[in-house]
Write a structure and sequence with these properties.
CATH topology of the largest domain: Nucleotidyltransferase, domain 5
Helix content: 40-55%
Number of domains: 3
Number of strands: 5
Shape: elongated
Largest sheet: 5 strands, mixed
Order of helices and strands: HHHHHHHHHEEEHEHEHHH
CATH superfamily of the largest domain: Ribonuclease H-like superfamily/Ribonuclease H
CATH architecture of the largest domain: 2-Layer Sandwich
CATH class of the largest domain: Alpha Beta
Radius of gyration: 34 Å
Strand order of the largest sheet: 3-2-1-4-5
């Protein structure tokens, strides 16, 4: 059997090893190695040292032998040295990320950019996080080209920020083609260490259209489900709003430019009900209608992961969600001023125009 090397320390070596072993700032690896050598100098064998320090015997034998052959230098040679750190060119990482594209790809990944610039992927990730860069994500947009954009914008934002007295402001729209989807197999429930599972495929059992009117005053919702979303269904919804709101209140309805909202029959009915005032959002500006926020909530909280074996089940789930919402409604608070929104749109139009000119040249 091979005999472990005998360790004999000079007074200087012992002082250095004891400093490392007691230090709160030295690397854990270095402190552990110092303890190995100190214990070995006391005549302890490798098994005993390993058991005392809670490490492997082979690790003890390796550092014992290295010290016997090379001394202090041998046990610290592979550790990082103090001195000036390598400087990362943050501006270059940001510039390459935002102004260039990798070969045969639509966006940079941390590994692609790291290999391209000769840095680590963790460095790239750190710079991205510090500068709010997320190349793997995209957001959709469309700038309105409505010639009456400014007038409609100021009208609707004015209703949000300064609603008229003795009136209700209702944000109205329809969420069409809501599907009753049933999964082809049962999923597994959420548990520690595992997400809830659902099959990627599904069975369709029909659709419904959700009509909703969100009150900007208290956040309550008037709603109904219909098979279709023609002007006749829209008219039934208007009659429901008429029934379920105080008769003495003037009603200001914010709607999009869907053709059913402007149907002659609807226009005729509105003419006979003067307390209804319709305010149309600009084209391609559905984000101005706050009911879209409610549609997002019902989609994420109840519909997207729901399992519905029939349209009847789907409608029951929608009604249950709305009833729960209306028990403790909470209004969405609009804070953006019309001028601030307009300035953003102007900047967006300038950017789009410059991109278009660059493409033409």
């Amino acid at each position: 059997m091979r005999k472990a090397s005998t360790i004999e320390l000079t007074s200087e070596q012992r002082r250095q090893l004891e400093r490392w072993a007691r230090s709160n700032t030295a690397e854990v690896r270095l402190a552990r190695r110092a303890l190995i050598i100190l214990r070995a100098s006391e005549g302890l064998d490798n098994h005993t040292i390993a058991a005392e320090l809670g490490i492997g015997r082979i690790q003890v034998a390796r550092w014992r032998e290295r010290f016997a052959q090379g001394g202090i230098v041998a046990i610290e040679s592979d550790l990082p040295r103090s001195g000036r750190k390598v400087r990362v060119d943050v501006a270059q990482i940001v510039r390459v990320t935002t102004q260039t594209l990798p070969e045969a790809a639509t966006h940079w990944s941390t590994r692609k950019l790291a290999a391209h610039l000769g840095v680590s992927d963790s460095t790239v990730l750190r710079v991205w996080r510090a500068n709010g860069l997320k190349p793997h994500r995209t957001e959709t947009f469309k700038v309105s080209r409505d010639p009456q954009f400014v007038e409609k914008l100021e009208d609707i934002v004015g209703l949000y920020l300064s609603p008229p007295e003795h009136a209700l402001v209702l944000c109205c729209d329809e969420k069409s083609q809501v599907q009753a989807l049933d999964r082809t197999q049962p999923g597994l429930p959420l548990k520690k260490g595992r997400a809830q599972t659902m099959t990627h495929d599904y069975k369709r059992h029909g659709t419904t259209t959700l009509f909703a009117a969100l009150s900007t005053l208290d956040g309550s919702v008037i709603a109904r489900c219909e098979e279709r979303h023609r002007h006749t269904e829209w008219l039934r919804f208007l009659r429901q709003i008429d029934r379920e709101t105080p008769k003495e209140k003037t009603l200001h309805l914010i709607c999009d430019n869907y053709a059913t909202h402007k149907h002659p029959t609807v226009t005729e009915w509105l003419g006979k009900h003067p307390r209804f005032h319709i305010h149309f959002t600009p084209t391609s500006a559905s984000w101005l209608n706050m009911v879209e926020r409610f549609f997002r909530d019902i989609t994420t909280d109840r519909l997207r992961r729901g399992v519905f074996r029939s349209v009847r089940e789907l409608i029951a789930a929608i009604k249950e969600f709305i009833a729960s919402h209306n028990k403790k409604p909470k209004p969405f608070v609009w804070t953006a001023k019309a001028n601030d929104i307009l300035q953003k749109v102007i900047r967006a139009n300038r950017s789009l125009s410059s991109k278009k000119n660059e493409a033409l040249h």
